[in-house]
Amino acid sequence: MTATGIRMTADELLRLPDNGMRRELIDGELHEWPLNGGEHGFVSGRVAGRLGTFIERQPGDRGGLFATGTGFWLAHNPDTVRAPDVAFVSEERLDRACVPGYPEMAPDVVVEVVSQDDLADELQAKVDQWLRAGSLQVWVLYPATRSAMTYRADGVVALLHADDSLHGDPVLPGFACRVGDLF
Q1: Which of 12, 21, 54, 151 could link 32 by a cystine bridge, Cβ 3.0 to 4.6 Å?
Q2: Cα(91)–Cα(105) distance, rounded to whole angstroms?
Q3: Phi then psi dihedrals of residue 165, to 5 deg
Q4: CATH of the domain at 64
């Protein structure tokens, strides 16, 4: 991710023309980086597929998934807009998320897929931002090692390997899948 030195608001970010780069606004500064590669897209799609199937099979209130590139407005003055690879928002908050611009909220569950150019300190800062903004769980998936780190708002952190199960409790009760099946 490259800091451009360009300062702007979330509204200005929303109006930028597409330049083929992924963009986020961090503390009012525009950050850009190239589009993700095939591995990243494949893993993001696998996670979204697993979560989507699980959600559709749930009775009653289910919530909704948001695809890569959906920006969430996490802070104001200076503005921060981050875009997870996959996000889940619970049914009771879904109306707040389904807006024309950036939803002013953090998703309940955030999934980040690590790319080869991601830096550990930037990734940890992003996890911390999601949790501070109100996300209840953040899952970080590492395709290179077929592993995952899970972070919960209550401070529980876990390292999961390919044969371990990734669980959605308490946000997505009953959701579980083998970590290795996501890669």
Answers
A1: 21
A2: 14
A3: -100, 135
A4: 3.90.1570.10
